[in-house]
Amino acid sequence: MPAVPHLPRAASAVAVLALVGCGSATVGTVGSPASAKWVSPFVSTPDGGQVQTTIYYGPWQCSVAFLSRCESKCAAQGYALMGCMWLADIKGDWKGRFMLMPAEAGGRLAITHCCCDYPKAADLTWRRNTWKNSRTTFRDEWGREFGGWPSTGGINWQGHHIFDLGHGGAPLARDNVLPVPDDVHGVFNREYPACYAPGGQWLKPGPERPYVD
């Protein structure tokens, strides 16, 4: 699993969830608080340290850099860019020892989705059923790495497909499913059609620092 871009105070590696359409997130932010936040327990890492994962949720309009990256991605696949959604930021904080001394490191990863003018998937029912039949196993595997799939009142959060199933997203790809609270998932679902529509807000650039911790 790829490591996030680091801002280390001591040399070490922080491995966190790496998802489709990601980019480096800006640290040191302005704006409003994120719409929701999830903080994992500390989980042991193979190097003897511990890592804690924090997810900040949007959605926000993509920065100029992310829009440009999406435009290039769509063009390389033979499609046009319709919009770009900055869905979340994932922050990893590692602590352990380096050269026998206490050490800490961390970084952030922006989770974005490029809404290219993809055709609608012809096998949507299969994709939905594949996710439905395997989501419990998927959540268990995710939880073993990140300390448990998020839930509220004992009810599991939704698994949001970053590259949506309706346009051909992979139902069980490790890098295509993000746990999302119900209210935020509702916003995502309402805004995805607008991201694929021409001339919408998701084609307009947003700030490089859209939220505060």
Structural summary, described in words:
With 213 residues, the chain is α+β, with helices and mostly antiparallel strands. Helix content is 24%, strand content 33%. The chain has three helices and twelve strands. The strands form four sheets. Strands 1, 3, 4, 5, 6 and 7 form a six-stranded antiparallel β-sheet that branches. Strands 2-12 form a two-stranded parallel sheet. The protein has a two-stranded antiparallel sheet with strand order 8-9. Strand 4 and strand 5 (50-61) form a beta hairpin. The radius of gyration is 17 Å and the shape is globular. Mean pLDDT is 84; it is low at 1-29.
Shape: globular
How would you spell out the order of helices and strands? EEEEEHEEHEEEEHE
Q: Give helix % range.
A: 10-25%
Distance between the termini: 26 Å
Number of helical runs?
3
SS elements, strand count: 12
Determine the structural class based on helices, strands and strand pairing.
alpha+beta
Q: Averaging pLDDT over every residue, what do you get?
A: 84
Low-pLDDT parts are 1-29
Strand coverage percent: 25-35%
Give the biggest beta sheet: 6 strands, antiparallel
Gyration radius, in Å: 17 Å
Please identify the oligomeric state: single chain
Explain the layout of strands and helices.
Blueprint (H helix, E strand, L loop, with lengths): L21 E3 L7 E2 L2 E4 L3 E2 L5 E12 L2 H13 L4 E18 L2 E16 L7 H23 L4 E2 L2 E2 L1 E4 L15 E4 L1 H15 L14 E2 L1
Parallel strand pairs: 2-12
Antiparallel strand pairs: 1-7, 3-5, 4-5, 5-6, 6-7, 8-9, 10-11
Short description:
The protein has 213 residues and is α+β, with helices and mostly antiparallel strands. The protein has three helices and twelve strands; from the N terminus they run E-E-E-E-E-H-E-E-H-E-E-E-E-H-E.
